Structures are given as structure tokens and as C-alpha cells.
Amino acid sequence: MRLMHEAGFSVMRVTEPAWLRWELEDGQFTLDWLQPVLDAALAQGMGTVLSLPTPEPPPWLARKHPEIAARRQHGESWGRVSQPVTDVTNQGFRFHAERMIRQVVGRYRDHRGVIGFQVDNLSGAEIFRSPGIFEAFVESLRQTYTDVDSINKEWGLVSWGRPLSTWNDLWAPDTNTVPQYDMAWKRFQSGVISDFVSWQSKIIRETARPDQFITTCVQYADAAGDDPGVARQVDITSGTVMFDIRDGLFFPESGTPRSEGVHAGPWGMTLAADRAYSSRQEPFLLTQTASPTADPIMNAPCFDGQWRQLAWAMISRGARMVEFRNWHALTWDPESYWTSVLPHDKLPGRVFEQLSVVGEELRSLGSAVSGLIPDAQIGLLWSNPSSWALDFQSGPRRTGEESLSREGVYDQIVGSFYRGAFEMGVSVRILHDRQICEGGADLVAPTETVKTLPVLVVAGLYVADDHLIDWLRRYVEAGGHLVVGPRSAVTDPQVRVRSKAKPAGLTDLLCASYQEMASLEAPVTVESCAPGFPVLPGAQGTVWLEGLYAEPEAQVLATYIHPHFGRYATVVTHRVGHGRATVIGTVPDPNLARALVQWLVPPTDPWRSLVSGPVTITSATLGDGRKLRVVYNWSWIPVVIQLPQPARDVTLPDSLLPSGYEVALNPWDVRAFVQ
Amino acid sequence: MRLMHEAGFSVMRVTEPAWLRWELEDGQFTLDWLQPVLDAALAQGMGTVLSLPTPEPPPWLARKHPEIAARRQHGESWGRVSQPVTDVTNQGFRFHAERMIRQVVGRYRDHRGVIGFQVDNLSGAEIFRSPGIFEAFVESLRQTYTDVDSINKEWGLVSWGRPLSTWNDLWAPDTNTVPQYDMAWKRFQSGVISDFVSWQSKIIRETARPDQFITTCVQYADAAGDDPGVARQVDITSGTVMFDIRDGLFFPESGTPRSEGVHAGPWGMTLAADRAYSSRQEPFLLTQTASPTADPIMNAPCFDGQWRQLAWAMISRGARMVEFRNWHALTWDPESYWTSVLPHDKLPGRVFEQLSVVGEELRSLGSAVSGLIPDAQIGLLWSNPSSWALDFQSGPRRTGEESLSREGVYDQIVGSFYRGAFEMGVSVRILHDRQICEGGADLVAPTETVKTLPVLVVAGLYVADDHLIDWLRRYVEAGGHLVVGPRSAVTDPQVRVRSKAKPAGLTDLLCASYQEMASLEAPVTVESCAPGFPVLPGAQGTVWLEGLYAEPEAQVLATYIHPHFGRYATVVTHRVGHGRATVIGTVPDPNLARALVQWLVPPTDPWRSLVSGPVTITSATLGDGRKLRVVYNWSWIPVVIQLPQPARDVTLPDSLLPSGYEVALNPWDVRAFVQ
Amino acid sequence: MRLMHEAGFSVMRVTEPAWLRWELEDGQFTLDWLQPVLDAALAQGMGTVLSLPTPEPPPWLARKHPEIAARRQHGESWGRVSQPVTDVTNQGFRFHAERMIRQVVGRYRDHRGVIGFQVDNLSGAEIFRSPGIFEAFVESLRQTYTDVDSINKEWGLVSWGRPLSTWNDLWAPDTNTVPQYDMAWKRFQSGVISDFVSWQSKIIRETARPDQFITTCVQYADAAGDDPGVARQVDITSGTVMFDIRDGLFFPESGTPRSEGVHAGPWGMTLAADRAYSSRQEPFLLTQTASPTADPIMNAPCFDGQWRQLAWAMISRGARMVEFRNWHALTWDPESYWTSVLPHDKLPGRVFEQLSVVGEELRSLGSAVSGLIPDAQIGLLWSNPSSWALDFQSGPRRTGEESLSREGVYDQIVGSFYRGAFEMGVSVRILHDRQICEGGADLVAPTETVKTLPVLVVAGLYVADDHLIDWLRRYVEAGGHLVVGPRSAVTDPQVRVRSKAKPAGLTDLLCASYQEMASLEAPVTVESCAPGFPVLPGAQGTVWLEGLYAEPEAQVLATYIHPHFGRYATVVTHRVGHGRATVIGTVPDPNLARALVQWLVPPTDPWRSLVSGPVTITSATLGDGRKLRVVYNWSWIPVVIQLPQPARDVTLPDSLLPSGYEVALNPWDVRAFVQ
């Protein structure tokens, strides 16, 4: 505890897998053992987040109640160690979970050190299967559609000769190939998760102190079902995000946008943070990060400086807390090689030293961090249902290896725009479709959104209801600049392809539309055809191409160089009153994405001039109204920057550095300034 | 309907997945709904092929009779949407299928628009498994072998210590590793398919008008069991063939011979047509094509011109009808991105326009198309049993992922010779082993075959009975030129490797034989050692090498350049009376295959001189005795050809173009001439 | 038989899969049929090894006693042909096996030709699963740990919230992710195999003649559980080893250290022999080799000369017998393309001729071969438990595809050092951890080991008990040079990472230690920092890097050139009395490994000067005290060597060749000399 305090830690998180330690035998609780741990932490000024261990039910529960088991896939049993899956809809499970929660929260609610509770863990990382869950799914369909004729019509089951005669005819999700079914199944699954988190939150809220928060940990890289839906059930979002570190943080990076389950490059790091912020449009807690993997043969501690970079990137993009896991490396365990603060010999070493510096630097920011709001020049619409639908298209649907994984084609589309913004020093605010409007009603007026986000990028919005499309139209009418990327406005919420010209419902605003689309085996070169649209040589459309034709009123900004695709426009823009609507018919490579962002957001902010070579920036507005400017060097080569405006180094708050002041950035260095 | 007519369509194919629309509840038939559709088609002069929806049984049948289900693999259930598999041997299923067929055919037999019926779909694309089918298989073995001792001897089961004591000892096919067992299993499966198609045909024949044809759709790229066996049961073959289009049609192509399930390059396109022709040695119907995949993220409409090329290639190689599927893109469906005539918005676009031109051009040929016979300079023997046996050798036999897929080593061997012919402008007639002789009796006399096909290539004929080998000997004696490729004449029909020197039974004719064979990790360079054998530098043997030694009487045409393999001959030829026997001990690369074809068929046909760069040709004899010559440009570069003989452009039948007349071929252009 | 004799064969091995031929029906034995075969062999002077066919139980046994079946994986049935898996712990199976063994051995024990018996085959190549085996495993745990509390503590089950309340809570091995569980499971499995081999040996020993040996065939490339444990149960080891032949034997080779299940390059060949020798630290029999695969489409007979190279390599590294399998290629069979002495036509060909030369050459060595001991300049410690633990870390633990395969990270680590020695002409003796000490007691005194092996390399010794570490310390104290490679001395026998600085228990001897480790995505360049340590440019550390810090008393021999890893030492050495302790913190590439070996064993042996280009050497001491020197040319290029010392060519024993005598080595040639 003393060492934790020394290293600057102010919070610890405990008891995630401790159900059996609380309840060794059915109904026999042992609760006092944690008291001395909490006391010791408090004595060092540290608070504690108490995790409720519902994701790790005790073996006796599995043995006594096998009906509680859910399954990852066909034929799998419950008896595995690493995070077994529970049917969280099972009332028997809920009885035991509630009893345990009430015992633990009741015992420790009055401890001064307990600042909050975590419910569940990695919610929605997996799809649940079990007879009980399938029956609940069918039941939910019955309530929605009343009779099978309705579902036959809505899902178009007639076209493959498989309409239902009775509810019993519904096939299992494992082998489903019908998009409409899949959407219903994913919506049901995300509902199950939200309901379970909500149910736990209510139980705790009845017992906990009003000043104690409730959170749940979302694994963004993996799945998370519907993160804004889950996050609504708690007081604050927690997120776990993984990065490719060490050489993976080089910038400008070359590799693929993302590797599976791991965000690559500095832009992947800030995207992860921006997604966590977006779940509640609020600051969030970060529960674990920077350890790319628990694989014992893929051990990779950061280079010196990278932990500082990570911490500053997260803080400036909205993290209220940055946790590291574990305190010390475990000696027995499948995850014994997880890079921890202390190594196996428990003697402070390089990791401890590096994190101590982070702790000290963060303290220098003081309480101004509390009200921090990360900057944003453009909005980016995120749609979990679109992600499900696009990934279902590309997924291995025949093998039953269904998952909610987001690391698919949706991420590729949306990520291409995000990356372009990051590489131009432009900050992005992610908005969820269901935060804009829901059930046919606005949750925020487009006239309000235009004020803070004058540019809104909508890419991969495959699934959209009429109201959302109308909201986007009103955003343009309110003076916003709407940028429509590929695969947008294609289907209705039932994933039925709309019969209208595409992007459906927006073609009149865009003065452009397409009938044909083509997947690209090789990228197609793009060239500018408007002086103001600064496409660099070598810019390309990738993956997918929509055959855009522009109407005469519209302006074509870029076209393809190709004997067949050359007939189509790449980027078309059209002024609509005070607003503007722009469409891009392909997944832009970084060159094309940067050109688009440069054109969308002219560089009026002088700090953007720092973005060059390995240097990038993030920024935020502090609680006291000051501006936080963070500058990074993602390389081994020392660089020198000149401050574009007067600012104070956060670690030397007394001296105002003048504009033009030269600041040296060491390898993998990060410097934070306030204005 | 009006648009269809406008685009030149003369036939539509309907109701493939409509069982439930015919019979919503068990025994309650609703049959009238199709009448107005057929009437409207007829009003536009279009006929209709009525598909009997046996491949898509209604859900209530699955629910009431689970014993009807077959399985693709262990543990799979019937409850999937996309083409469930039925145990077509099940008598309960046949009862329901027969009742439905009689109702539908009876209702519409008298409709003037109904020109024919399709039974089953993609017959033999899959291996059926179910307890009932396995028991039927064992029963068929009992009838063939009487007692287990016979099967132990015939299958050589003693060598692995696994002889049967009772029929109950027979293991399931899923984990079988015995080639003899696998051959019996594949033969049984193809028999099941033929029997099912035959059974349906008889029922329809009892009811249908004499002028209505019966067909069934064979998926050549996938499997199809034994296509000549299935095709015997119907009046005309229908085929579904897939190509790699767009850039995949470039010629000269570079890539691999074929990608999985999809034929690559123009030669793969005509090979598919020639295979369909071969099933009955008659013209065929083409049910769907040019859409390489139903994968919604692999959408690929043709470049301008490619649909015309496809249609002309198919017609000139024997297609009586070229269908496109679907009429309009479906809005809900796993296959909603299948490239259709109309896009999702149902407005005629580029695909419609392109196909309209095709329709108009084809009409210009008139009725002469009816008696069209595609040209052939050489014969190529095809052996489905050899394909099964070679693919079983290379397949993942341990995992139960058995399939009848042909896209394996057999296709690679046979395809290498076909491609060589195509690239030299030489037409190929595919003959099936079972069309030559069967059950120890000739079906065609070798003296007859020699007259039309003076050269016969036999490659990959791994499985051959004594009579077939004798037939090949008599073909040489009759003056034919027999070309024996690698892996031929190796085993008897029980897939037992023959103990004689190889190619077994042909070594005396060839005056060459081999004892050793070697798989090749890297290709081996080949050089000519005879002035008349025009091997280009860089020619190579690939994949497999048989260590041929030639006897002094034979002439060695080519050898390997390699420190070890250099001792062996590559190509050996030997004159036998008026005939000739030639052997090639490796899978030729395109350079070697072209040299072989050039030597086999000297270019007496002046039209072969057009084959150069991206230009290739196909040809046929029309019903009125005239010659059809089709010339293609498989590239973006316009080319000009000179007619080698006087001919008429089919779209300008009135003017005879002189020899030497220059014809410009645009990118992806095709021109058809008659002589 | 005559041909066998002609080719120089002196032993044949029969009846491996013949149980059913012995016992066609339950209890009805037919034993006489083998007599004429044995007689005929004896008449040609050939002895016979009789294999007891326990690995291939007859189908009637499977049918009558399904409880005897073991399973390879979930859901698999017993009914497959290729080597079904038996639950060898099942008492019913043992009853039948014992009855058959007693009948067969009793019938033929008195035949003069029978020189020995083989029990089991490829022991331990697979993990057995079945309810019975799992229960036996749980029972063995109960005996070891008495109560679940002990196992919870020992295995650290509390850390993932999965401690056991009762023995019934133990999960199945298929989905296990706990290293402690896996080690217990692998130890149990290897115990099952040893026990089964021991049980068979005892039965045979009761009946067989005293001069008949008992052996069992170990598949080193695959798994083999615990080969020294199994080999203890028999009189002599038999091994089956697979190589990548043909181009795969080029030297200097470039490719990866090893491909799956197949040893690559000449060093892989001698490593396989040295492993077989190590099982009993005695000469061994080689049952099959040089056929890289049974795959019918991967047929690859050796180039001329390679069989001779293989035979001499094996003999000079301790093989008492080199067998080839099969005598003739089988005509029906999944393995009908296994390269055999005679091809399918049974006429002697190239393979026969090549092997005949081998037989003649070996005869020239005479009886001196009997007492042959392969040379060894350095020892290499082998640890099967470490191999299990490291491979479990990297394995696909989530899918249940568990295997005992050794072709993983352990082989990569240990192989890198072995290869370095081979490439410097230095011979290696492999010692097993359990041959050094066991159960806390020395099996050999370190003072003895130092005398024959003054250098001992310990790499990948991940699992080590305190006594073994103490033994290593005493080896240094006794004057030995201990070389500690990466991933050594990390865990205790329960695979719990030790809490001490690493390499645990050796840091004081080494005067070096590390806290951090890192997997390497790309190799890191290494440079020498000591004049006597001859690192060539381009030397690299690969795969894994331990962050070594040296104390001032130690000497750093090499360091990394890298902005981050440059702070660490690569190789550190420290004199300890008369001994020396050296540590290397990475998996060396060949350049680094060669430098290390050059430094460890200075080239006092003049024959090492021959190792250059494609030439390598092996050597041994013959039974009569003379030295056997074998020189190889692993290429197509003829080379000339000069004898470094006077020696006699084994095929011309009468003339002593002088030092400097020029010997021409043809392509793929091998020459053997005695001194």
C-alpha cells in the first residue's frame, strides 16, 4: 500500500473474481476478510472500487444448478475456468446474485474508503446461448410481432421458402443466415445485457451511500453490445481498451487500421478513448490498458515514455481515472505474464518508476481535471446496429462462430475517417445514433448539434430509420455540413434494403446518387477535380465503391482514374442554404481521408501546425476554462517544437512560455501545456 | 414483364423456393396465384420454366417429420434457412414431394406459357448424411458384396487391422480414411441423386404435355456428383456456372488456374460451358452466371461488354438459353447483393442496358442457333470417379469436412491441358468415361470417336477399369492419337493401385513407363529435345512428376533441366501403326501445355492466327451448316483484327466482309461472324 | 526374402496391425500363418522383430466393448480406421490384450528368427480422453492432494474465482486454461503410457527367451509423452523420426528451424538421432524414416545419395539398426504412396539400388558398430515438463485442440542452440532432467558429468525443482561451464512462477538477473563487446528477450543494438572458482548461436576445419576404440576435402590415407573414415 501511494495511485479496484471468497458454501457468507485491506488503503489516502463478482459464479452454483449455464457455442460446457458464461436471465442465478450483492454491499457500504461499485465485467463481450435464452428471444418476438404472419412479412421469409407456420418453426441462431433475424437477435442480446446491468444497479442503489458511484466495465475492442444502452444503467462508464504498443505506436504508422481486438497506432488509442467518452457523452474511467494481451508468449512492456503518453492521451480525451492491472504479476495463473506494476519478484522496477512519473505529472493538473471536456471540431456518427448488420454480412455465418465483434468492416469504414481527422490534428466527437433520436423522437435538436459540431460525418450508417434520416436533413437545413460516407442510409431498421436511390432519403440534398456498387479487390486511384480539394498523388479508394453520379447543381471534388470506375464521382458536394451536404463513395485511404478533413476543417487552430512527422496533438477544455494542449512524439527521434501560442508547462505552472518558445521532445515524449 | 420483353428476355424461371406458397398447411394447396404471372409473361411472348421446389421443403414438414432431415456435418440441425438438406431417400419425404408435384404440374400443365419443368436444384452439390442414408449405404454394400469377407478382401481392410466381422463394424463416413470406402460412398451418393431426379422426372412425365421438357440444374463448380448420370434422367441439362469476372477476365491472365468454386479467366468460362455440354453431349440451358458470389461484401457487376462476351461464349459453346438471376435485387435476404438485372430501386440502369444489347444480338442469329454444335479439334476425357479419388487423397479427411468439391487436384491436372488448348485457339470436346464404356461394354466404338476426335487427351484418369484401358488401346489401333497425362491409369475401379508398371496397361503402346513419382514443391524447367516440339523458354512441369523412362523405339520430345529429375523424360511419343501414343509425366504449365497443343493440332484453321495478345476465339457449326466464329478482346486496350476469311457480321448479315477486312474490337468487346 | 537379403537387410519388423489376423473372433486364435514367413526370413539370415498389435484392436472388440474407446476430441467416435485410440487403462481392454500377447509370444518365443518384441507403437503420440481416463485422473489427484483445499492452494485456483468445493467441481481438460492443471494432466497422461508399456513388457518378459529384447516405438517428432520414462520400461528404445528430405536437406539451409512434425535440415536429422539416443543414453533402433509423409499427394523419394547420408548420420549418432518401411508400396491403403523399398510394381528400382549400397557400406564397419558411442563435446539439458508448459502457454487452449506436440516454442528455443553446435562441427549429448535427479535425489553426480561434458547448455528449462537447480549449482562448483538460455529456471514443478529474481536460484552464480521480459515481433541485432566473443555482423536475438542486467563482477560478452533493448546485456559470463556460469537472454539466431558455440568449445579437433559450405561432419567412438569420422556434402556441387589427419576409408580398410589426402565428395555424398 505504501508503494502504491508512493507511485501516485489514488484508487484501487478489487474483488472482481471473489464470489467464492464471499460465499464458500451456498448461503454461508464470509465477509470480514476485506476490511483490513480497505483500511490499509484508506490509511494511504486511497479509495477503493468494489467489484461485484457476478461474472465469476462459484463452482458450487454451476454444480447445483446446471440450468444456469449459458454457452459460447454448440456443445460447450460450463466447466471452464476462464470466465464461464452465465445465463443472466435465469431467475435462479439472479436469486443467488442478489443475495450475494446485498451481503457484500451491506457489509461495506459504510466503509469510508469505498468510493464506488462495479457491476458485471466486459458486459456484452459475448453472445449468450442456452435453451432458456432462446425461449426468451422467441417470447420477445411474439410480443413484438403477435403472429407469425407478421414476422414472415417483416423479415421477408417468403423469399427463401422458409416462412414460419408456428413459432416452433423458428430456427436456432447458430445457423441463421437471415439478416432480419440476426438484427433481432443482436438487439435482444444487447437488451439482455442492459437489463442485467440495470437490475444490479437498482439493487446496489437501494443499499449504497448516495456518494458512491456505480459503474460497469465495457470492453470496446471486443463487442459490448450496445454501449450507450448499457452505460445508461450506471453512473459512469468504465472501459477496458487494448492497444498495440511498443513499435505499434510509431507514427506515421504504416500497417493496417487495426489488428483483431487491439487498436493500432496512436489514432487507435484516441479513438478508443473517444468511444468510451461517447457511451455517456461524459468522462469515463479506464480500468485496464496498455497490456496488449494476456498471452504468456506475447509479453510486451512499453518503451520508456509510452505509459506517460498513454495516460496523457486518455486524460485529455476524457478519462477521469487511468488504472493499471495488476499491481503485481501473478505467479500462478493463465495471465501470469500480464505486464503489471511490479514484476514477479515484487521489487519496484522500471514499470513502477515510469508510472510514478505519470502519477506526479497528473497531480500537477490539480482539480481542473474534474470538469475537463475533450475538444471536438467534427462529429462522427456511430451506429451499433449498423456495425452488427455489416459484420453479419461479412462474418462466417455458416459455422456458428457468431460474435458481436466490432473489429470488422464497420470499424474499417468509420476508422478511415477518424484516422484522417487524427492525422490532421482535428478532434472528433463520437455521437451514437440512439443519442440523437430514438423511437421517432429527437433526443437532441439538430439546431443544437450544429452549434458545437458544424461538421458531421456519417459513414457506414447502414441501418437507419426514417426519423434519423430526417434528423440528418434538418441538420443540413440548420446550417450543418453533413458528410455521407460509403454504405450509409441503405436499409431500414429491419435491415431491408430501401428501394429508393441511395443514399436513401438524402439524394436530393446531395444532388448525387448511385445504383451500383462494387467491392474492390485492389484500390482505385483518386484525383482531385476541384482546386480547393487538396488530394495528394497516390490517394486511393479502397474496399468498396459506390457508383456515384452527380447532378449538375452539385460540385464534383474528386474522381477515380480507372477505365471502368472513372465514370463515377468519388466526392460530391452541394450547398443547401446555409448548410452543405457532401458524399464520398468509397472507403478513403489515409491520403484521401486527410484531404477530405483538410477541406472540411480549415486549419484555423495554430496548434495544428505542430502535427508533422512523428508529432501529434490532443486538446481539451479544463474545468476552470483553461485550454489543455498535449503534444506527443511517437518515435525514437528527438524533435523540437515551437509553441504556436503562449502557454504554461503543467509541471512548471509559474512561468508563461512565450509563443515561439522551443520545446524539446525526447523519444516517446509527451508534454502538456495550459493556456 | 414489359421491361423483360424490352430487354430481349424470352424465358423466365420461377417458383424454385415456393413449396410453402403452394402448400401452406399440410395437404392444403393454394395453386391459382401463379396464373396471372404466367399469363402476363405469355402476353409479352415469354415462356416459363416452372421449378418444382423440392430442395426447399416447408418448415411444417421439418417440424412434423424430423426424420426427413439430412445433415451436412456432425451435429448440424435442420433448422437453417439457407437451403436445408433433405434425406431424399426418405419415403415420408417422397410422399409429400410427390403429392405437391402432382398438384402443381396438374394445375399448370395446360398453360401455354409453361415450356418445361425443373426438378431439384444444384443436385449433388452436397453429401447427405443421416442415419437413414447411412443404413441405405450399408444395405447397398451388402447387396454388392454379400458377406463381410468379400469386402475385407476387396477393400484391403486387413492391411490396417480393421477388417469387418459383421456389417455393424462399418464405421461412419465422417472419419473414414480408406480410399476404397470413400469411392463406394461417393458412388452411392451420386446414385442417390440420380435416383431422386429420375423419380421426379417419371412423376412429371406422367402428367406433363409431351412438348414440355424436364431439366435439373447442376452446379458444376461445386460438385454435382456424377453429372452425366444425373443428366440421363432428364430431357436437357441445366447448369449453373460461376466465373471470376471484372479483372478476373483479363487475358492473358496471370493468376492461379482457378479460385475455389469460381472459374478464373476466359478459359475457365468456356471450360464450364464445355462441361455442361458434355453431361449429355448436347446443348444445355444456363440458369445463372456472371455473379461470382452471393456474398454481400463481394459485390462485383461486370465491366461494360463482359455480359456480351459471356453470352456469346456460352452460346458458341452450346448453350441454348442464357438466364440471369435475379430480375431485380432483393431487398431482404441473405442474397440481396446478388447482381440482378434491376438494382434495388428497380429502375433500369447499366445492367439492363447491357443485357438489352445482348438480347438484340442473339436474336440476329435466328433459328440457326437450334442445331448449333460447338467445334472440337481434340477430345478430353473426364472422369468423375477419378476426381473423387484424387480429391479424397488431398482432402482434409481427418476433420469430417468431406465434400464432393471438384476444385481440387483433379481440376488442376485436367484444367492445365484444357487451358493450353484454349490459349492456342483449339476447341475441346469433353467426353466422360462412362459415356465411352460402362459395365464392360462399349457405348461408343473407338473407330467412331477417331473420326470426329483424332486426338484424345487423358489426364488425371486415376481410376479406370480394364475395359476402359482396352478402349483407349483400340482408339490408338484405330488411328487415334492418345495423349496420356499425369496420374492416369493408376488404379482399378476399387482405387487399388495396379501392380503393373505405369501408366498401367499402356506402357507397351507408349514405349515408356515409370516406377517413381514425386510431388514438386517448386516447378521444374522443361526443354525440348525434338525440333518439332516447340517448347518456349521458361516452360515448366508443376505439382507432380512421374519418372518416365522411354524405350529406344520411342521418341523423347522434352526433358527436365534438373540435377535429379534430369534423368527422366517429360514427353515421350510413339507411333503405333496409324495411331500414336504420347505420354507427359507432369502437370504442364501454360507454356508447356501450349507447346503440346501446338504439336498435337497444327494450325490449319486460319482463324487461329487471330489468337494473340488479349484476343481469343470460339467457334461452332450452326444448325444450317454455316460456321459461327466469335472473336473476343479480353482487355481495356482496343485492338484491330483482320478477317482471315470472308465472313458476315451477325448484326449486319447482308454484307459479306472480305478476307483481310479490318474489324476494330473495343475494350471487352466481342464480335460474331458467320461463314 | 531373397531380394531383402540381396539389398543387405538383416532384420524385418512384422505384424504391427495384425490383432485380427491372430484372433479373428473373440477367443479364437489362428497363430500358425506367420511360421513360414519367419522361416523364410531366417533362411536368408534375417532376424524378425515381432510387433504386438495392441495399438490396432480388432473391430469386434470395439463393437462388444464400446467402453474401451478413448477419444481424440469431443464427440469423436471410435469407428475410424486410421489408428483408433484405445483407453489403455481399461481393465477389459487389458484382459483381451494380455490374452492375445500370451498366445502370440508363447507361439513364437522359440522361433530362432525372433530377436525381439515391440510393444505399443508411437506411444504417447496422442492425449487420451474418455470418462474412465478422466475419473482415473481425478483419482490420482485425490491421492496426491487428499482434499480440495490443498489443490486450491497448490494450483492457485482462488485467483480466478474457481476453487473447488468438491472433487466434482473439477472441469474437463478440454477447456482447461490453468497451467497447474495442465501440468498434472500431462504428467498423468505420460504415466498412463509408461504404465501400459511396462505392463506389456512384464507379460512378455515372463514368456520370452532371455536373449529376446523388448522395445517400443517412440515418435519423437510428435509427442511421446515422457520418452525417458517410457524407455525405462523396455530393453532398448525404438524411434520413428521424420525429416524434410530432398531440397529440405540443403546446407547451409535458410528456412525455419522446423516444420510441423518434420525435422528440417541436416541438423534436424542429427537432433532427432541424439534425442533417440538420450531416451536411454544408449544406442537405439530406428523403425522408419526418410518418408516425410504418408500424404498421397506429397510423394517425395530422396535424391540419389540421401539415403546413404541418412543411414550414416543415424549410425554415427547411435542407431544400432536403420529400418525402412514398407518393403513394397501398398496397393490399397491410405498410405499407399509411402515411399517403400519396392514400388507398386514390386520390381527393384532406384530405391532398392540405393539402399543396397547402404547395406554394403554398413557391413564394412563390421562388429565395431556394436559398442559405438557417439561423440559429444557439450551437453544439452532436455526437459519434457518444460516443453509441456511452454507449449501450453502458446497453444490454442480455447478450442480444445490440446496435444502433446513438441514442435512448438520449446523446440525453437532448444533447437537454436543445438543448431549452432551442429553448424560448428560440435557434437551434443542430450541429457534429460529426470536422468540427472529425480524425487530430490541425484541420479548422477555433477562431478561425474563434468568429466565427460565440461559444458552444459540449459535453455527453455522453464520448469525446474529446487534440487535440479541445486544440481546445476554443484555442476559449476565442480568446474563445469553452465550456459543458461532464455526461459530457464522460471517456475517450480507446479508451474508457479518463482518470486525470486530470474533465472531463479542462479543469479548469484551468473552475477546477472532480469525482471522484465519481452516477446519480439522483429529480431534485435546483437554485437559483441568482448574481443574473444566472435559475433558476426547480422547476429540477432529472436522471439523473446529477457532484460538482463550484469553485476560489475561479471563480464558482458554481447549487447543489443536497439534504442530500448540496448540497455540490456545479451550474453553475460562469470567465473565461479574453477567453473563458469554464462547466461544468454534471447533465442539466438544461427549467427549468434555459432558465435556462442565457438566461444564455448574452441576448435581443437582438426576435423572441425572441414565444416564449410555444404560440408558437415559427425563422429563417434567405435566399440574397438577407433574413431569414426563421417563427412557429408549436402548439395549438388561436388567438393574436395583434405583429410586433416591420417585415416582409413571404411570401404577400403587396408590403405591408410595420409593427412592432406584429397577426397572428392560427389553431390549428396557421404564418406566414412576410421582412425
3D structure, described in words:
- The structure is a homotrimer of 675-residue chains.
- Chain A is α/β, with parallel strands linked by helices.
- In chain A, 30% of the residues lie in helices and 21% in strands.
- The first copy, chain A, contains 19 helices and 34 strands.
- In chain A, the strands form 8 sheets. In chain A, strands 13, 14, 17, 18, 20, 21, 22, 24, 25, 26 and 27 form an 11-stranded mixed sheet that branches.
- In chain A, strand 8 (258-259) and strand 9 form a beta hairpin.
- Chain A is globular and about 75 Å long.
- Mean pLDDT of chain A is 88; it is low at 74-83, 256-261, 292-296 and 396-407.
- The interface between A and C is large, with 51 and 50 residues.
Please write out the topology.
The structure is a homotrimer of 675-residue chains.
Chain A: H1 2-6, E1 11-14, H2 19-22, E2 23-25, E3 28-29, H3 35-43, E4 47-51, H4 59-64, H5 91-108, E5 114-119, H6 131-145, H7 148-154, H8 179-207, E6 213-219, H9 227-231, E7 236-240, E8 258-259, E9 262-263, H10 265-280, E10 284-288, H11 306-316, E11 319-322, H12 350-365, E12 373-374, E13 378-382, H13 384-394, H14 409-423, E14 428-432, H15 433-436, E15 437-438, E16 441-442, H16 446-452, E17 455-458, H17 466-477, E18 481-484, H18 507-510, E19 512-513, E20 517-519, E21 524-528, E22 540-546, E23 549-550, E24 555-560, E25 569-576, E26 579-584, E27 586-588, H19 590-600, E28 615-621, E29 627-633, E30 639-642, E31 647-649, E32 656-657, E33 662-665, E34 670-674
Helix pairs in contact in A: 5-8, 8-13, 10-14, 11-12, 14-19, 16-17
